[in-house]
Amino acid sequence: MKIALLGYGKMGRYIERLATEGGDEVVLRVDEHNRADIRSADLEGVDVAIDFSRPDAAVANIELALAAGVPVVVGTTGWLDQLPTVRKQVEEAGGALFWASNFSVGVNVFFAAARRLAELISKENYRVSIEETHHTEKIDAPSGTAITLAETVAAGLRGDRPDIISYREKDVPGTHLLRFSSDIDEIEMTHTAHSREGFARGAIQAAHWIAGRRGVFTMADLLESD
Ligand SMILES: NC(=O)C1=CN([C@@H]2O[C@H](COP(=O)(O)OP(=O)(O)OC[C@H]3O[C@@H](n4cnc5c(N)ncnc54)[C@H](O)[C@@H]3O)[C@@H](O)[C@H]2O)C=CC1
Ligand SMILES: O=C(O)C1=N[C@H](C(=O)O)C[C@H](O)C1
């Protein structure tokens, strides 16, 4: 398939390498230097746009893809407070958006396990906390994954979102720790990304999956489909 990359940094370049190895073709690369020159007509012939850019750029990039009638896969974090408005825009345009705060299969399994653990523990007296560690170039804090994890745990507990502590350390691709602690014992679950490969593979899988679909989707839709 023909891909437009909206954002051509660490993730955009990783996706290009894996997608090309898999037989896809990257036909447009957009970054902060050429973004102002890009119009929806430049997306003509593109099958899917993949956005890994910046928190303050994602919504305009989604609007660009919608205007071009091109499905868009968005991995950028830090804009999801605007999802309700964007969802309306997608529905009104009859477009397709696939978003995920984390595209790796491992993290999405971690979310499901965290939800179940929170449900099981909800009547007990545990303190819940989340810690996330990322590389020092990361703009947003807390991470999108940590926010999704906190929302998932809160839903399982039928309670408040746990607090999140953010750490920034050189070259860390992404580590998330969920802790339930009481005076009696402690339960910890950690997901450690060894590289960006899981994120890139998941985004490419989503790009193939969204072809021919309309609406707003995320990883649970993909993982639960046949
Ligand atoms: N959902 C997921 O699985 C993952 C999400 N991310 C998120 O993806 C985003 C990008 O991450 P990285 O590639 O590591 O960042 P990066 O800083 O390496 O790359 C960002 C790219 O966006 C470009 N850019 C800036 N303004 C732009 C605009 N208006 N339009 C298009 N491109 C623009 C920059 O020139 C750069 O090429 C971040 O929000 C990060 O949190 C990162 C990894 C996994
Ligand atoms: O910026 C990153 O690098 C990452 N961002 C995502 C997030 O904010 O959760 C996903 C992953 O952890 C890497």
TrEMBL record:
NAD(+) binds at residues 32, 75-77, 100-103. It catalyses: (S)-2,3,4,5-tetrahydrodipicolinate + NAD(+) + H2O = (2S,4S)-4-hydroxy-2,3,4,5-tetrahydrodipicolinate + NADH + H(+); (S)-2,3,4,5-tetrahydrodipicolinate + NADP(+) + H2O = (2S,4S)-4-hydroxy-2,3,4,5-tetrahydrodipicolinate + NADPH + H(+). One of its GO terms (cellular component) is cytosol. (S)-2,3,4,5-tetrahydrodipicolinate binds at residues 135, 144-145. NADP(+) binds at residue 35. Residues 1-103 form the Dihydrodipicolinate reductase N-terminal domain. GO terms for biological process: diaminopimelate biosynthetic process; lysine biosynthetic process via diaminopimelate. Residues 106-223 form the Dihydrodipicolinate reductase C-terminal domain. Pathway: Amino-acid biosynthesis; L-lysine biosynthesis via DAP pathway; (S)-tetrahydrodipicolinate from L-aspartate: step 4/4. The keyword tRNA-binding does not apply. SUPFAM superfamilies: Glyceraldehyde-3-phosphate dehydrogenase-like, C-terminal domain (SSF55347), NAD(P)-binding Rossmann-fold domains (SSF51735). It comes from the Bacteria. Its EC number is 1.17.1.8. The active site is at 134 (proton donor/acceptor), 138 (proton donor). Catalyzes the conversion of 4-hydroxy-tetrahydrodipicolinate (HTPA) to tetrahydrodipicolinate. Homotetramer. Belongs to the DapB family. PANTHER family: 4-HYDROXY-TETRAHYDRODIPICOLINATE REDUCTASE 1, CHLOROPLASTIC-RELATED, DIHYDRODIPICOLINATE REDUCTASE. This is 4-hydroxy-tetrahydrodipicolinate reductase. It comes from Neolewinella aquimaris.
